[in-house]
Every structure is written in C-alpha cells, then in structure tokens.
C-alpha cells in the first residue's frame, strides 16, 4: 500500500514537472499559474502543494535538475584524457545531449531572469561546474601545444554557444542527420583551436 | 501647431516602444498587459491605441524594427568585397551591434514563439536576409580557396550563435573591453574557416 501511494506520488511529481516544463516553454514562467499547471495534470491546485511549496521552487527544480542531469551525463560520457580526443567527445556529447532536450534548454536560458538571487547563484555554480570541464580541456590542450587558445574562458563560451545554437535550427526532419551535424561542428571546433 | 502635435505623437510612440521592450524583456510578452505599458509611460490605455492596434503588432514592430536596424547597420558598415577582410568586418560588426542592444537581442530570440504565423514568416525573411550576407562571404571565401567551409549554412549558424553569445556573458565593467573580445573572437572565427 505504501508502495502504491509512493509510486502515485512520484508519478504525479513527474507529470507536474512535465506539465510545468511545457507550459513555461510555451507561455513563459510569469504568465503561467499554479492553477493552470494543476488543471493540465487533472488535480486540484491544493494537491500541487504536496509536491512543491511554490512556483519559484518548481522553476528552480526544473532548471537545477536539467543541470544535474547534464553533469551526470557528461560524467557518464567518459571524456578521454588526451586534449584533442577530449574536445571531440565533449563536442559530440554537448550537441547530442542538448538536441534531445529542446524545451529544457530553452527555459534554462530564458527563465534565468525569473530565479530568485539565491536560486540563480546555485544554478550558476552548476553551470560553471560544467563549463569548467571544457575550459580544463582547452587549457590542457594549450599547455601540451596541441591547441591555440588565447583565452580559455572566451573559447569555452564561444564553443558552448555555437554548439547549443544547433537547437535553434536543427530539425529531425531536415536535410541533415544529427550525426552529420556533429561531424561538421567537430571540424569547425577543431580548427577554431588549431595550434 | 501641427508640428508640435506630430513631435509629441512621435515621442509617445518612442516611449511606448521603449517601455514595451523593457517590460517584455523583464516579464515576458505573455505576462505584460497593454494596461501595464500605458501605466509605465503615464497615459490612459485607450491612448495607446492611437499608436498601435494591439499587443501582437507591438511585439512584431519591436522585433521587425530591430531586424530592419540590423540590416541598415550592416549595409552602412561597408563590408569589403575580399572574403577574409569581409569576414573580419562582419565579425566585429555583429559583436558590436548586438552588445549595444541586449534587450532587443534577448526578446528577439525569446519571443519568436509569441508571433503570429504571418508575423513570424515576415521576421524570418528579414533574418534570412541578414544570414545570407554571412553565407555569401563564406561561399566566396571557399570558392577563392581562402576558406575551408564544409557547409556554408551550418558555418553561418555556428558563427552567428557564437558571436551573439557574447551578450550572455560580456559586462562592460568586466576584465575585458569589447575591443579585446572582438579581437579574440575574430581569431577564433578566422581559424574556424582556415583553409
């Protein structure tokens, strides 16, 4: 019995996150009420508060879980130690991971302005943890003389922006497969830091 | 007398756009009412309708004027004909132009989803007009053998994403001047298409 109740609660929690994600992505955080989210998943608005104390916490959890999932996934991707193979693995990982989560990526950028200062600081720490992995690859590559990197921080931001930008134009029904996109982007990233 | 009335109307129109831009950037289009915009500039909501028929038209004009201004500015930048100097001039122009307009750039990306299909199509045409200028430079460079470009469309999207991405991290009070940022980004763009 406890188990069934637990499963149902977990299920409602998951549907709540999914509904909030879609409503925030479509209309924006500020325009969506807890009442609308409750209606979307077919529960009373009071029932939501068993799962989440308020809308700000809901937004923060969505963004923070997106970053936690990214950090776990990059860990699981087993990026090699050698700088150039590491950069290739990171490039391909970043494109694939983000292309599979367009709504999370969109609200992660768009709704930063709606986080409380405390929540924004927590999210920034997660983001910097991810960015630091790419910066470390570039610094190792520059130190080993296999990459030219004037400024590891700017190169990190440039590479992440160009890779995440794939989400703005890539369509699965388009002329190119994601594998072809990865290939061309890896060529551009490799040249961008060519020693 | 006509002249004074005309100037006042133009002034209200400009203040209306500025207020809408800031409110949309802060709260999102869907969360902002015409009443709030009117309150922000100190007029009755009925007075807004002398300037703009509805909120959708207001959003479209903001985004469309941003693109029109971009197209005029790139024209005025007198990009040279030679491919490599053209790419350098385009890179520097794009960073400078966008860094000076963070709110317009932000809502131009974020509020695309709130345009009507007709307005979206009009804006897309303007955007493609701009992107085509960069694609043409890359194609000329590849044809002349001074650039390596596997896919001019993807290289265009990659370069624009990385350059516009400067807006997400650059602060005028930071460790770098915009001139230094331009310099490092031009180095990365040049290598990205190195033949």
Automatic annotation (TrEMBL), chains A, B:
InterPro entries: Homeodomain-like_sf, HTH-type_TetR-like_transc_reg, HTH_TetR, KstR2_TetR_C, Tet_transcr_reg_TetR-rel_C_sf
Domain named HTH tetR-type: residues: 10-70
Bilayer-crossing regions: none
Origin superkingdom: Bacteria
DNA-binding region: 33-52
GO molecular function annotations of the record: DNA-binding transcription factor activity; transcription cis-regulatory region binding
Coiled coil spans: none
PROSITE patterns tied to this protein: HTH_TETR_2
KW Metal-binding (keyword) present: no
Keywords: DNA-binding
KW DNA-binding (keyword) present: yes
Stated name of the protein: HTH-type transcriptional repressor KstR2
Record organism: Pseudooceanicola marinus
Gene behind the chain: kstR2
């Amino acid at each position: 019995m406890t188990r069934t109740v637990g499963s149902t609660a977990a299920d409602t929690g998951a549907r709540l996150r999914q509904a909030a994600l879609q409503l925030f992505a479509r209309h924006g955080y500020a325009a969506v009420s807890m009442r609308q989210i409750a209606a979307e998943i077919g529960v009373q608005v009071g029932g939501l508060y068993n799962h989440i104390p308020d809308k700000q916490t809901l937004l923060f959890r969505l963004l923070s879980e997106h970053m936690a999932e990214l950090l776990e996934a990059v860990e699981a991707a087993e990026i090699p130690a050698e700088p150039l193979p590491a950069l290739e693995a990171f490039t391909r990982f970043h494109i694939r991971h983000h292309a599979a989560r367009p709504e999370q990526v969109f609200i992660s950028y768009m709704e930063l302005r709606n986080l409380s200062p405390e929540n924004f600081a927590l999210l920034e720490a997660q983001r910097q943890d991810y960015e630091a992995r790419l910066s470390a690859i570039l610094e190792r590559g520059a130190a080993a003389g296999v990459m030219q990197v004037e400024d590891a921080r700017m190169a990190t931001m440039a590479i992440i922006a160009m890779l995440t930008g794939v989400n703005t134009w890539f369509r699965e029904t388009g002329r190119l497969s994601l594998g072809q996109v990865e290939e061309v982007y890896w060529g551009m990233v490799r040249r961008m830091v060519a020693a």
